[in-house]
Amino acid sequence: MKPNFKQLAVFLIIFAITSLLAPSNTAWSQTDQIIKALSRNPKIMSSEEVLKDFMSGKATTRVIINLSKPANFKQIANLKDPYTREALREAVSSLQNMVIRRMNPSHFRITNKFIYVFALSAEVTLEGLQALTEIEEIESIQKDKILYPHLAQGIPLMNASTVRSTYNGQGLSIAICDTGIDYTHPMLGNGGFPNSKVIGGYDCGDEDNDPMDEEGHGTCCAGIAAGNLDTVGDYIGGVAYNAKLYAL
């Protein structure tokens, strides 16, 4: 009986394809198991959001890593004190460096080290994310994403119309802890710093006395809180439009 070379060739091709695909399927099965385990990990906040990139086949994702505060820094009374600020910076840096030393650089890339906050952000692989959950000093992990400022007037949506018609903020000052305030804006003083609306402040990021907003979000919040009364498009002034502002 003559061998059927055509059937033999087809069999060999199918065998080769199956052999090539088998490791891939095994690897994907392992990845799927890791994702399922991480989705139940209590350290990962909004796990579906954090794991979304991996579930769609991406190799990395960006996360913010929140560290457990040392007991002596849970209540800080006076950040104006330079010695307190320096001690806080050193404590934050020490914890950040501890995490960095424990991570494999091939699965972990720093994107930002915060100065006064016990946290850092990084780009991680799935293996890197898994390793982070095993570090005791890490309190939680969340998705690092861009939050875009919303400039549309929102007073009716926040149910502030009634309050605004009764109280206008006269005699009060509001501290906007954000990206700063554009104090040259027509509704926020329309001049230098300080001015009639933005009466004081400080740039805690650059550590200088000019809290000019370079991002826009703080200015938006300042306008909603206490922008001068006027009607321009959908702008109608802030909730407490007669209040003064501090930009931090």
Question: For the residues shown, what is the average pLDDT?
Answer: 87
> What is the CATH C-level name of the largest domain?
Alpha Beta
Distance between the termini: 90 Å
Proportion of residues in extended strands: 15-25%
Radius of gyration: 27 Å
> Which strands sit side by side, in order, in the main sheet?
2-3-1-4
What's the overall geometry?
A: globular
Question: Which architecture of the largest domain per CATH?
Answer: 2-Layer Sandwich
Major sheet details? 4 strands, antiparallel
Helix content: 25-40%
Low-pLDDT stretches: none
Order of helices and strands: HHEHEEHEHEEHE
CATH homologous superfamily grouping of the largest domain: Peptidase S8 propeptide/proteinase inhibitor I9
Quote the CATH topology of the largest domain. Alpha-Beta Plaits
- Please identify the structural class as seen in this structure: alpha/beta
Count of β-strands? 7
Number of helices: 6
Report on this structure:
36% of the residues lie in helices and 16% in strands. By secondary structure, it is α/β, with parallel strands linked by helices. It folds into two domains: 104 residues, Peptidase S8 propeptide/proteinase inhibitor I9 (Alpha-Beta Plaits, 2-Layer Sandwich); 98 residues, no CATH class. A four-stranded antiparallel sheet has the order 2-3-1-4. The chain has a three-stranded parallel sheet with strand order 5-7-6, with helices on one face. Helix 1 packs antiparallel against helix 2. The chain is globular and about 85 Å long. It starts with a helix and ends with a strand.
